[in-house]
Amino acid sequence: MYGSRTHDDVRLLRFFTYTDAVLSQKNIYMVGIGGIGMSALAQLLKHQGKAVSGSDREESPTTILLARKGIKVSIGHDQCHIPADCELLIYSDAVPASNAERTRAREMDIPEMSYFEALGEASKNARTIAVAGTHGKTTTTGMLAKILQYCGKEPTAVVGSIVRDFGSNFLAGKEDLLVVEACEYRDHLLKLLPQILIITNIELDHTDYFPDLATLQETFRKAAERVPENGVIVTNPSDPVIAAVLDRAKALIIDYTTQTVPALKLIGEFNRENAQAAKAAARAAFPHLDEAFTDRALLEFKGSWRRFEYKGETPAGTLVYDDYAHHPTAVQKTIEAAREEYPDKKIVVAFHPHLYSRTKSFLNEFALALACADRCVIAPIYAAREQTDPSVSNEILAAATRAAGGRAIALDSFDEIRDALLEEGEDAFIITMGAGDIYKVAEQIVGE
């Protein structure tokens, strides 16, 4: 009947009501709370006075961090742990609609929001500085938060890794100043409305969503266009790939490559570029900042978990580092930086390919990058959100790497990889590398 509402209509109305007023909800449950972004959002919501709890499929450094901060985390997704008084469920994009807890939430008429929807809502009332780009987002976000904290601006920050300077992937500060790492995957970046947008660089990635570079550029073009006229875009406008996405921008464009930065604790030219972007954004937000203070903050920045992180030494004296690199460009630059820093060492990489689609799309590029190492051990592909694709494998990637002039073998378990790495002596330098859980191997071999 005209004017009547179905059950679905009522649920939809309730969803939009909760979406518009997410900050008013007191009891929030998060499925996939151990995700790097979700765990930071959980801390933000708790900082705002919410009752936050959640679940994840397994224990991890982030779930341990949350527990230390008084946030209850239930391990396992096959049972429902949703509190009876839950008013809103936030889910990670890695958690499907068929998940038992998401299904139960719908039965309980509890509104749902994705992580990026919730983050967008949480940022609406703040002056938001969003850090986007294919590479360097996490380090740039951490550096920017460190600069603003050091300069007394008290930022709140959501970072895509545990920043050693803060001991967390979240920095508690003022509610009206938010620094946030923004991901382009599935146009998540467009859920945010930043006053300042950093674009570190643009290179084709996430090929399970973006079929080509032009499609990816369109997402960044929309993001740049959404920055208001009184806002700022911090980027490298001399890069032709970036220049092409600025054609509809209304905001002031600042070239971060003009910034001078001090010598850093972090190695690699790419980290220098990250520092330039962070400094440019900080000075755009607060033009009066004393350069001596911005540079001191960068000089003291310690880095983040899984970003060329020193793990220790093996019993044989082999240096062991871990890095999140999972794109061919990042893999190559990380290996090159290691070789520059340790020219007398044999560079040994244990690589954990991330996603079948990415490995398949960039097979030749990965092979060329991995061939830059003296020796490479390749783990089985980490499927994450994808189904198995038998047309690509770690053995295929190893063969391609050997064809590119590298020394590579495929091993089918972390135990085999651990044993192979423990054969290296003190003349070697080991990097475990990838977006999966290959870091666990690094922790095992230094703990022997």
Can you tell me about this structure?
The protein has 448 residues and is α/β, with parallel strands linked by helices. The protein has 3 domains: 7-119, NAD(P)-binding Rossmann-like Domain (Rossmann fold, 3-Layer(aba) Sandwich); 126-300, Mur-like, catalytic domain (UDP-N-acetylmuramoyl-L-alanine:D-glutamate ligase); 309-446, Mur ligase, C-terminal domain (Protein-Tyrosine Phosphatase, Chain A, Alpha-Beta Complex). The protein contains 16 helices and 18 strands. It has helices at residues 7-20, 36-47, 61-68, 100-107, 115-123, 137-150, 213-226, 240-243, 269-285, 291-300, 328-341, 356-361, 363-370, 394-403, 414-421, 439-446, and strands at residues 27-31, 51-56, 72-75, 88-91, 112-114, 127-132, 156-163, 168-171, 177-181, 196-199, 232-235, 252-255, 309-313, 319-323, 346-351, 375-378, 408-410, 428-433. The strands form 3 sheets. It has a 7-stranded mixed β-sheet, with helices on both faces. Helix 13 packs across helix 14 (394-403) and helix 15 (414-421) crosses helix 16. The longest helix has 17 residues, at 269-285. The radius of gyration is 22 Å and the shape is globular. The termini are far apart.
